[in-house]
Amino acid sequence: MTCIQATGLHKSYGSSVALNSIDLNVAEGRILGLIGPNGAGKTTLLNAILGLTSFQGSLSVLGRNPWTQRDQLMNDVAFVADVAVLPRWMRVSDAIDFVAGIHPRFDRAKAEAFLARTTIKRTSKVRELSKGMVAQLHLALVMSIDAKLLVLDEPTLGLDILFRKQFYDSLLNDYFDHHRTILVTTHQIDEIQYILTDLLFIDRGNLVFGCSMDDFDTRYLELIANPAQLAAARALKPIQERQTFGRSILLYDRVSREQLAPLGDVRTPSIADVFVAFVGQPNQPAPYSPPPVSTPGSYTGAAQ
Fold first, then answer.
1. Domain end marker among 126, 161, 196
2. Does the pLDDT of residue 289 top 70, yes or no?
3. Of 162, 196, 230, at which residue does a domain stop?
4. In this predicted structure, what is the pLDDT of residue 304?
5. What's the predicted TM-score (pTM) here?
6. Which of 13-22, 112-121, 169-178, 256-265 is predicted least confidently?
7. Which of 86, 199, 237, 299 is exposed most, by the fewest CB atoms within 10 A?
8. Residue 189 DSSP class
9. How far is CA 181 from the centre of its chain?
10. Where are the strands (E) in the chain, listed by range?
């Protein structure tokens, strides 16, 4: 079943194009990482999905038009942005009461059980909590909503690495059940690599790359080339070459490890390595544009 489907999704602000007629298909039960630089169109795409902005083209979220059917849609959607959005004057118990009063799918017992595993006191005010504890509170509230789609926009911004790891571990172990769909944006790319099922890069309003993480792990390899083998390495047509500490590092798409092994040290690239190759480079590879297929997640992107 499809969770998010867009065809020719377009959004402009005057002469500025925020979304450039993109196509998108996300199946239910996936964890999609939406990665892009500042100003790439991430927030506009999330706002369209959440029914917070109008758009041109076709967009369906959980079978509904988010702009014209937002009230019904939000019964099945939860959204987490920077945790600083919780009112600082509110007590923890008040936050639980508030969410219980506005969301029909909120499970108070589940929220209480999650908070019982923390040091957060129900009588504490948000302003008395550390940012990590606020993140735990926010996560407890959201994970207790039986939502079909969870949208996370930079959810761990400003948190230290320990709390970021705990946040994503809790999300994966206590919330995700292969029926819910999670869409997450973050600049801390490599920290979420282990939770993702699918990956999407957006740049200047275009989808420039998309694949499943299974495909990512088998398609891409990096070679730290031996200087004497550099010409042979270049003959295999890497999609990017960069210099680090005087060594040439080449990135390949669909070149086997057996072909590369005699030419230097071979390793699996990180998401960040591939992101740099596809986004913001003067000679970046052609935008990723696979044919539509009936797979758990498929992505097509229009290029300028």
1. 196
2. no
3. 196
4. 31
5. 0.85
6. 169-178
7. 237
8. G
9. 11
10. 2-13, 16-27, 31-35, 56-61, 77-80, 149-153, 181-185, 198-203, 206-212, 220-225, 240-244, 247-253, 264-267, 297-300
Q: Which residues contact 204 (CB under 8 A, 6 or more apart)?
A: 17, 20, 39, 40, 41, 304
Q: Give me the chain's average pLDDT, please.
A: 87
Assess contact for 103 and 145: CB atoms under 8 A: yes
Q: Is the pLDDT score of 134 beyond 90?
A: no
Distance CA 67, CA 73 (A): 9
Amino acid at 172: L
Residue 241, Cβ density class (10 Å: 0-12 exposed, 13-18 middle, ≥19 buried): middle
Contact of 299 with 6, CB cutoff 8 Å: no
Report the chain's C-alpha Rg in angstroms.
21
**What digits encode the pLDDT tens for the residues 51-87?**
999 999 999 999 999 999 999 999 899 888 765 567 8
